């Protein structure tokens, strides 16, 4: 959420940031609403002071035996009381309206984010690894003989409908091994703290990270008011919600492996085959909570943690910086990591790492107490995939495919697979 004081002080800068996202100026609307809110608050406070003053005079008039003055003052107090209630109600209404409006406005991009309307303006930063030169036509993951019978879309459709999958036998174990490998790497090598969190959360938790109110259709809710998380960013970031942490605990770097749920609203017809776009999937998420001045360095660090997963799996990838028209609602800057998929002959997103500045912290009122003293300040928050487990499985399968239909598995996974090294007809060998 944006800082209303910053908008008051420099409305042109606020509108310029919106323009980079392709949005019309909003400062006149926001400042008009803010002025009405502040006026209502001032009027309510003035009426309250008048009520208090009249209340003090009531007792004095009673003590003097001035019945007429007593009745006049008592009527005035009652009148002011009703006036105060009405004004406070109006001030609260305008305050809520301003807050709701600010919650709908996306974060301001950092100055070095490339400007553009959509993904066509994204900029490649670098590549790692060289795709294998195959002497046969590569298949997509769901077409591989190595997964037949163990990647079951028909049973999943019977159970849940489209965009679900049942994994069995060796494929299920490789999927589990990938998640375990990622967690071990982040905890042991990258010094992240592992957490196990709920996947059902309260609405205010979704508001805190920006999924609500604007993107309600992208998520699922239960009949009794819970929301199913689209990523553990929601739970991990909200650890600081309503809290004031000591600076000494910053940066706090967290990771969690969870099921995630997305309705994929607006994605009809996209990636309907295979596991690329599912309603339920698993991710190993990373979240950092830090001082605002450390956020840029933490963004680079987090992205390198995600890249390390791909490099240890020997999966070719490229890093992309998203342009202003393609970055997420709460992001100031986002790096996407795209992994090479020979079956599609292209790179596809497997991780997205974003720095959000103080945007989410304002929404959830997450602060820290500076070690040097002074008023508590809002923290900065970052989030990133480390990685999407299902998409990583796809990449491992497609990049490891052999001409005989088997899949050779990355060496770092062998200890998690009981020493097995290949996948043949859905079975580890």
Q: Mind describing the biggest β-sheet?
A: 8 strands, mixed
Instruction: Give me the side-by-side strand order of the main sheet.
Output: 1-11-12-13-16-10-9-4
- Globally, the shape reads elongated
Strand content: 15-25%
Nearest-integer average pLDDT: 94
**How many strand segments?**
19
* Helical content band: 25-40%
Tally the helices: 11
Instruction: Indicate the radius of gyration in whole angstroms.
Output: 28 Å
* Amino- and carboxy-terminal Cα gap: 52 Å
Low-confidence stretches: none
What is the H/E order? HHHHEEHEHEEHEEHEEEHEEEHEEEHEEE
Structural class: alpha+beta
Question: Notable features of this structure?
Answer:
39% helix; 8-stranded mixed sheet; 3-stranded antiparallel sheet; alpha+beta; single chain; 19 strands
Question: What does the model show?
Answer:
With about 425 residues, this protein is an alpha+beta fold. Helices cover about 40% and strands about 20% of the residues. The chain contains eleven helices and 19 strands. It has an eight-stranded mixed beta sheet. A three-stranded antiparallel beta sheet has the order 5-7-6. It has a three-stranded mixed beta sheet with strand order 8-14-15, with no helix packed on it. Helix 6 packs across helix 11.
């Amino acid at each position: 959420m944006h800082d209303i004081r910053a908008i008051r002080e420099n409305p042109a800068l606020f509108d310029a940031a919106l323009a980079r996202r392709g949005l019309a100026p909003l400062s006149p609307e926001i400042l008009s609403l803010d002025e009405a809110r502040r006026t209502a608050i001032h009027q309510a406070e003035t009426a309250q002071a008048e009520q208090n003053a009249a209340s003090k005079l009531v007792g004095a008039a009673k003590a003097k035996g001035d019945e007429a003055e007593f009745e006049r003052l008592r009527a005035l107090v009652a009148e002011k009381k009703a006036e105060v209630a009405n004004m406070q109600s109006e001030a609260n209404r305008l305050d809520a309206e301003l807050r709701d409006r600010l919650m709908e406005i996306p974060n301001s991009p950092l100055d070095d984010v490339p400007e553009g309307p959509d993904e066509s303006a994204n900029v490649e930063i670098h590549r790692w690894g060289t795709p294998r030169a195959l002497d046969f036509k590569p298949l997509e993951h769901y077409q591989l003989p190595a997964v037949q019978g163990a990647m079951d879309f028909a049973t999943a459709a019977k159970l849940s409908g489209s965009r679900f999958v049942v994994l069995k036998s060796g494929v299920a174990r490789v999927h589990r091994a990938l998640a375990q490998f990622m967690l071990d790497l982040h905890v042991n090598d990258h010094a992240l703290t592992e957490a196990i969190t709920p996947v059902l959360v309260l609405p205010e938790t979704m508001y805190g990270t920006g999924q609500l109110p604007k993107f309600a259709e992208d998520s699922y809710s239960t009949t009794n008011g819970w929301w199913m998380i689209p990523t553990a960013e929601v739970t991990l970031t909200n650890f600081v919600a309503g809290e004031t942490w000591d600076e000494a605990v910053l940066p706090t770097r967290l990771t969690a492996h969870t099921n995630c749920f997305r309705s994929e609203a607006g994605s009809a017809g996209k990636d309907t085959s295979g596991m690329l776009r599912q309603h339920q999937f698993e991710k190993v998420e990373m979240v950092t909570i830090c001082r605002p001045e450390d956020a840029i360095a933490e963004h680079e660090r987090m992205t390198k943690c995600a890249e390390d997963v791909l490099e240890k799996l020997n999966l070719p990838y490229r890093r992309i910086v998203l342009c202003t028209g393609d970055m997420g609602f709460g992001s100031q800057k986002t790096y996407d990591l795209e992994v090479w998929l020979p079956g599609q002959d292209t790179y596809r997103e497997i991780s997205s790492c974003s720095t959000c500045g103080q945007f989410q912290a304002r929404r959830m009122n997450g602060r820290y107490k500076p070690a040097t003293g002074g008023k508590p300040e809002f923290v900065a928050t970052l989030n990133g995939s480390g990685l999407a487990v299902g998409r990583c499985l796809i990449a491992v399968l497609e990049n490891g495919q052999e001409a005989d239909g088997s899949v050779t598995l990355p060496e770092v996974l062998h200890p998690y697979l009981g020493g097995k090294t290949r996948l043949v007809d859905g079975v580890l060998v």
